[in-house]
Amino acid sequence: MPKTRLLALGAVPALALALAMAGCGDGKTGDKAGASGSGKIAVTATDTECKLERTEVASGAITFAVSNKGTKVTEFYVFATGDRIVGEVENVAPGLTRDLIVELPAGTYETACKPGMIGNGIRGAFKATGESRPLTDNAKLDQATKDYQRYVQSQAAALIDKTTEFVNAVKAGDVEKAKALYPIARTYWERIEPVAESFGDLDPAIDAREADLEAGQEWTGFHKIEKDLWVTKDISKSGPIADKLLADVKTIVEKAATVQLSPLELANGAKELLDEVATGKITGEEEAFSHTDLWDFAANLDGSRAAIAALHPVIEEKDAALAKTLDEKFAAAQAELDKYRSGDGWKLHNELTEPQLKALGDVINALAEPISKVAPLVATK
Fold first, then answer.
1. Pairing outcome for strands 60-68 and 40-45
2. CA 345, 351, 357: angle at the middle one, nearest 5?
3. Which CATH number belongs to the domain containing residue 78 in this structure?
4. CA pair distance 60, 379, nearest whole angstrom
5. CB within 8 Å of 220: residues ≥ 6 apart
6. Neighbours of 39 (CB within 10 A)
7. What is the model's pLDDT at position 284?
8. Is residue 290 part of a domain?
9. Residue 202 within any structural domain of the chain
């Protein structure tokens, strides 16, 4: 989700920068790629502007080359009707260029740059025209989206069940039970976060951290209750927040069930989940009060693997070597993470040393690079 990320650990900023660069060129390469006639749309982002080379294109798979010419880390989004996110690229550091590939059927959209990764962004109208053959006309890609949507539905059902248990424990005043259920409920959220977070204001209502809040913004959701449980240690007044959390989760699950995902959303989502690990879980910022970040880490890895597994037949057909590399890198990441199991869960983030966190970061970095190749591969007909 669009969160302000303040990287804290000495070993981690280099990892985050490496992940931000994975799958994209340096500034010079990106500028050339974004020039007219390249097939890409150059996006120049500054601290005050968001300039697109073109704002009307033929429908189909579209590549945006997003160059940050400002002084703040930025994000770039493509929104469909109702502010549903159909594509995003986060953590574009000053001087860097990152590509975003999205499939846009004919229709009207909005684009947005978010300097500082906060607010509604600098928005502009965008239009896709004509008719193009959708990627899902490919039988294997069509099957991939169906397989992944079944995965999302199963995780969404479990998300409602476990969030209900968590909310009931909070409202009953059972602190220890609520603490035990908190990371379990969040596991199901984190596995499908790219889908769940695509619905406008619902995502921050559910998942905003204290550091993400803007002036005057009401703080609700998981992390507000997390602070009540672990810091204030008083949940006597948390009932209304818990009720709202469950209502918001049910709404987002209902919305997710109606969305027809594209193959590129699977590929981009797999990468976004790894970026979530690099910018929140490794640093310990996501679960600042409970330190249950490794539950989230494992869930993000699970969700990324599920998206790639759905696309695996297509990847293997088009690039068998890449398919093999992805299998190996996922296995290596899981093996490194498994070192920190504790009972049915995981060790707390603050129980790991900096070298251990760096080792976890290294395997995610190694996995992010081949995953960044999946979207361009999928977009190739």
1. parallel
2. 90
3. 2.60.40.420
4. 9
5. 205, 206, 208, 241, 244, 245, 248
6. 11
7. 95
8. yes
9. yes
Give 126's strand partners.
109
Q: Are residues 47 and 104 in the same domain?
A: yes
CB 261 within 8 Å of CB 148: yes
What is the reported pTM?
Answer: 0.85
Same structural domain, 53 and 141 = no
* Phi, psi torsion values for 112, nearest 5 degrees: -155, 135
Taking a C-beta distance cutoff of 8 angstroms, is the pair 117, 75 a contact? yes
One domain, residues 242 and 311: yes
Strands 56-58 and 122-129: parallel
178 CB burial (10 A radius; 0-12, 13-18, 19+):
buried
pLDDT tens digits for range 225-273: 999 999 999 999 999 999 999 999 999 999 888 888 899 999 999 999 9
CA–CA gap between residue 289 and residue 306 (Å, rounded) = 29
- Which tokens sit at 237? 């007044």
Pair of tokens at residue 357: 């966190």
Residue 19 has pLDDT above 60, yes or no: no
Question: CA-CA distance, 131 to 22, in Å (whole number)?
Answer: 32
Q: Are 285 and 350 members of one domain?
A: yes
283-to-88, 124, 248, 315 alpha-carbon distances in Å: 22, 33, 27, 31
Same domain as 310, residue 163: yes
Query: What domain range includes position 26?
Result: 12-132
Pair 82, 104 in one domain: yes
**CATH classification at residue 165:** 1.20.1420.20
